[in-house]
Each structure stands twice: as C-alpha cells, then as structure tokens.
Design brief:
mainly alpha, single chain, two-stranded antiparallel ribbon, about 50% helix
C-alpha cells in the first residue's frame, strides 16, 4: 500500500486508456480502486489522499432508446410463450436477461414482490450469484399484477422444475440460456414478424422499466436498487434525461419557501 500515490493511480488510468479498455470498464475499475484507497486513507495508512488531483475516467453512456407502451406490446406478442415471459420480466420488473432466465415461481415472496436471487451465468451456463453480489445475496423488486399473472399463466401452461419456469429446450436438465432470447429476437427482427424500432435492443426492455418508474415519480435511488446497479451514478448518468422536470419543480418549491 505504501507504493501508492497519485502518480501510480494516474499511470493505472493511462495504461487502461493505452490498452483501449472500454470506458465503462475503466470507470468501474477506477471506482473499485478509489474505494480501496480512500478506505486506507481514512484508516491512516496514507497521510495524503492518493487520489488528490487524479482525473477519473469519464463514462457518459449513450442515450437509451426506450420503446413506447404500444411498441412494447407489439414486441411482447411477436414471439413464443418463453419470449413473452422474458419480455414481461425485463420490462415489468427490470431484470437482466440472465436473471429473467432463472425465474422461479418460489421467488414470489408476496403478491407484489419478486425476490431476484440468481442468474444464469453466460460463461458457466449454470445458475450463479447476481451481478455485483455474493452468493446468497438477493434483491427484492416490485411485481406488478400483470407480470405476476404472466408468471402464473406460464407455470400453469408449461409446468416447472424445482420451481424454475424455464429450462433448455434441448435438455430439460440444463438451465435456459440467455443467448436463446437473443437468437429469437434477431430471428423475429430479420423475419420482420415484430416491429422493433431503430436503436431498440433487448436491454431496452430494462430501460422501459426504469422509464416507467421515473415517469411515475419513483425515486431514482429505488430504481437503482431494483435494477441491481452497484453505483447510483451509473443509474443517474443513464436515466437523468428521463427526469426533465426535476429542476423546474425544485425551483418552484424553493420559491415557496423564500416567499416568507
């Protein structure tokens, strides 16, 4: 730890840039390193803050393309039953595709709460812990009645295996793989069986969830937690433009306080 100073941190950032590491990955790596070093500084291991004067990588996500409710309905109705279920879970509960692939009816812990406990890991092809989480950690997300109905409809129509709704179509002993959703998405788009607007991708279903939350006044802190973001800055950077009235509303509220 004694070898760290601002020059070492600057070299770390510069080396990532030289290696053409993605800006989002640079930002995440820097955040983790900064957290460790600031902790050490607060504990007295460093007399001086090793981050002083260091310019962190700037990650500015592209503006997300969000389908309208009508477009979402068209997308949802274009595929098979599995496709409908996955689209519902991602757009209605904000799940990642790997999390939706691991949907389990036992995780309905209340009429309006689904507990996201695991995901299908795209590398190992097996069930594993959530992104940014340790084994056994989970997050509770809102379960709209419409999405609960879809889960129960699918379970009634297709059955479950140890509570899991989805299994690999060629081998029921294996988890459903997220790439199968991508394959069907691309096939439906190519065959023009569903009208997918330009710029809309599978991840846009998660964007729809965030947009739906924020447009109904749900705090962005809650949205970040439900989406599983480990850093609210990421949520804010992606979805800040969905809250265009925030500053204006604040100005009016502050003005009322100044009237006295």
């Amino acid at each position: 730890m004694n070898s760290f100073d601002h020059k070492v941190v600057e070299d770390f950032v510069r080396n990532m840039e030289t290696a053409e590491v993605g800006v989002a990955t640079q930002s995440n790596a820097f955040d983790k390193l900064a957290s460790i070093l600031l902790n050490a500084h607060h504990l007295g291991i460093f007399d001086d803050n090793p981050l002083r004067g260091v310019k962190p990588p700037q990650y500015t996500p592209n503006r997300s393309i969000i389908p309208t409710p009508g477009q979402l309905a068209a997308i949802r109705s274009g595929g098979d039953d599995t496709f409908k279920l996955l689209v519902a879970l991602m757009s209605g509960c904000g799940m990642r595709n790997g999390e939706a692939a691991a949907v389990n009816i036992r995780n309905i812990v209340a009429n309006d709460v689904y507990r996201v406990t695991e995901q299908v890991n795209q590398t190992t092809k097996t069930y594993g812990p959530l992104k940014h989480r340790k084994p056994g950690e989970y997050r509770d997300v809102p379960l709209p009645p419409r999405i609960k109905d879809v889960i129960e409809w699918y379970a009634g129509a297709h059955g479950t295996t140890d509570g899991y709704l989805l299994r690999h179509p060629q081998d029921s002993r294996q988890p459903f793989q997220p790439y199968l959703l991508q394959n069907q998405w691309q096939r439906l788009k190519k065959e023009q069986k569903i009208d997918i607007p330009e710029g809309v991708v599978i991840y846009s279903l998660r964007h729809f969830f965030a947009s739906n939350c924020l447009s109904h006044g749900i705090p962005i802190t809650d949205v970040a937690e439900w989406m599983g973001h480990n850093n609210i800055d990421i949520t804010f950077k992606i979805y800040r433009h969905l809250m265009p009235g925030t500053l204006g509303q604040a100005a009016k509220a502050l003005d009322l306080g100044l009237a006295a």
